[in-house]
Amino acid sequence: MILPPFRLHRPKSLDEAVSIAASCGNDFDYIGGGTDLLPNYKNRLNPRGNVIALWDVAELAHREGRSFGAMLRLNDLAADASVRSSYRGLHEAVAAVASPLVRQQATLGGNLLVETRCYYFNQSHDWRAAKGYCMKADGDVCLVVPQKEICYAVYAGDAAAPLLALDATLTIRGRGGSREVPLRDFYQPDGIRKHVLERGDILARVTLPAEASGYRSGYAKLRLRGSFDFPDAGVAAALRLKGDVVEDLRIAATAVSMTPRLFPEVTEPLRGERLTAAAIGEIAAAIAGGSQPVRNVMFPPQYRRRMVEVFTRRLLDRLAGPASAAA
Question: Does the predicted TM-score (pTM) go above 0.85?
């Protein structure tokens, strides 16, 4: 398939990128790695007349301790020994994205902003024309849950779940300057209106709190093939223990709803309690019960919900074990 025509812009700074976006009206997309955007363009999924490349914006490609530029390549994060030792869940998530070749190009910010996916959306133009267009591209009705108000395309990024569990904050640059948004407040439950970014905003940095390195964390992913595929379900957990007592526990799921989500109603009552085998089983069942996937990807909802339970139990068994097991 051939890309549609567009004008490519290559700003050198964030301010220049935001200024170019303002001059393009609504007819633009930003591009980082392009591993999601360009295949969608080839399928004629909402292409724009202007593409603003962030490749030359140097400030987006730097790591400063626990603050990560949005243009950092996933392969570099996966190869970073300090990420593996301090933020194991993030390491496991970025190392599970797609394939080595894709990770060479894909970026951290791009994975957080990955387009929501659906069986009826991620198809060729001819396929969609034959079936009937959905509200996410060219149509006005959701074909998963038929109605015209909410798109049920599923969020399908990997990095968001461990970053939610580690309580990350995003730095966003827009026409009004920079602002900080907790990741837990960033996503919105609609496959089209996906997050709080305003048109022209740029996700600039991802910052973890100082205490994040004190958590044991991990990530598990369900996908059809052992490489390349987006998650059909994923679970991340971050655990801080004092002896064998839970000081804090956060669990996040991805690819089972329009947003990645935390489950504080399940985990917060565990503070001050021992993480026994029985407690782990109850937590896993509650997380699965709170996940509400619909039939919008390859695996059926019941199987995805069951695997959320399995992954949660496995992660907590691992993280609650000896420190060496989580390292």
Answer: yes
Which CATH number fits the domain 213-326, given the four candidates 3.30.390.50, 3.40.50.300, 3.60.40.10, 2.115.10.20? Answer: 3.30.390.50
At the top level of CATH, the class of 1-56 is: alpha beta
Query: Within the chain, which residue ranges are assigned CATH 3.30.43.10?
Result: 1-56
* Confidence band of 326 (pLDDT split at 50, 70, 90): very low
Per residue in 295-304, pLDDT (tens digit) is: 999 999 999 9
Give the domain 59-210 fold. 3.30.465
The predicted pLDDT at position 324 comes to 43
3-state SS track over the chain: CCCCCCEEECCCCHHHHHHHHHHCCCCEEEECCCCCHHHHHHCCCCCCCEEEECCCCHHHHCEECCEEECCCEHHHHHCCHHHHHHCHHHHHHHHCCCCHHHHHHCEHHHHHCCCCECCCCCCCHHHHHHHCCCCCCCCCCCCCCCCCCCCCCECCCCCHHHHHHCCCEEEEEECCEEEEEEHHHCECCCCCCCECCCCCCEEEEEECCHHHHHCEEEEEEECCCCCCCCCCEEEEEEEEEECCEEEEEEEEEECCCCCCEECHHHHHHHCCCECCHHHHHHHHHHHHHHCCCCCCCCCCHHHHHHHHHHHHHHHHHHHCCCHHHHC
Rounded average pLDDT over 42-47: 97
Let me know: does 92 contact 218? Beta carbons within 8 Å: yes
